[in-house]
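re: that chain from earlier
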Amino acid sequence: MLSLSNNHLEGSIPTCLVEHQPLLYIDVSNNNLMGFVPCFVNSSLEYIHLNNMLSGLPKRMFSKSSSLTILDLSYNEIVGSIQDMMEDLSHRRLNILILKGNRFTGHLPEQICQLEGLSILDLSYNNFFGPIPNCLGKMPFEDDPRSLRYAFDGFLHAINSNTKTMTPNINEKAIFTTKKRSYTYTESILAYMSGIDLSKNKLNGSIPSELGNLTRIRALNLSHNNLIGEIPATFSKLVQIESLDLSFNMLSGQIPHQLNQLNSLAVFSVAHNNLSGDTPERKGQFITFDESSYEGNSLLCGPPLLKSCHPYLQSPTVSSNDEDNNSPIDMVAFYVSFVVAYTSVLFVIVATLCINPDWRRAWFSYMEFIILSFYYFYAR
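^ sequence. v structure.
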């Protein structure tokens, strides 16, 4: 075991260091090391943490016999494709792959789907483009918790040793972003965490419906990409998901109403897309989501948004200060119709009297009779 993290080391990583056969764990993160990531073909390393200023990958990284558990190359300055590295890692029991915060580019190779033991995949803050591989939804993203606890519970097991010795106090950890915050998962807690973070890239195309098959996953972040199409209704099968972030894409169509069946969902965001229609019914966990989960979708309506899906069907409101608010009659319309009706009647009477002299004489005679009758009545 070798831990030299959080120092001010400079230069490159010596090849002879990683080829030291008894070495199973190396952490030289948070230094100022530069150059290429070393080749691990002749090493027996299982836990690798190299967060530095490294700039490239070797053509060949791992041997077919390597048994890697964690590979953390996050926050370096590595450029290029990960195709060769994925070919070296294919069919391994790698549990955690973190490549966050580099300058990787190119398509996501389908060899990622051959990492059969993967539980955490973090490729965020890179320059990947192209579609999300459909086969990603066919991965189990789970493992036997007992075996994972054994790998992360603070003891390093020498698998190739005949003595089966264990070195204590590794304090293994991995930093993963979920629920819009970065958490440091340590030791056996890593056995219970699983997630995919592909945010802050340039991925395009539609979201594969196969991702709905990842029923054991707890976090899925596809935000800040160029994804189009509809949100797959199959996401309703993500029964253990706690954080689902699809914001800042170009998704369209309606939000599947089946999503309100996700009872473990704590953070949900589809903000800043091109979604339309009404929001899912506010029940279960969806009662807790406010307007910020849906903002930036001009065609989206329904609570908790202020925009109503049925603006012409307004229910009567009750006001304690004005009882007239309880009336279903529109009082403004009533007053206007009243004035128009009586003005029309008066106009018709005047027009009739002007046109017909016989009716005019009869009208004034009748009015004279009414006036005289009232006069004599009051004169008595």
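The mean pLDDT is 84.
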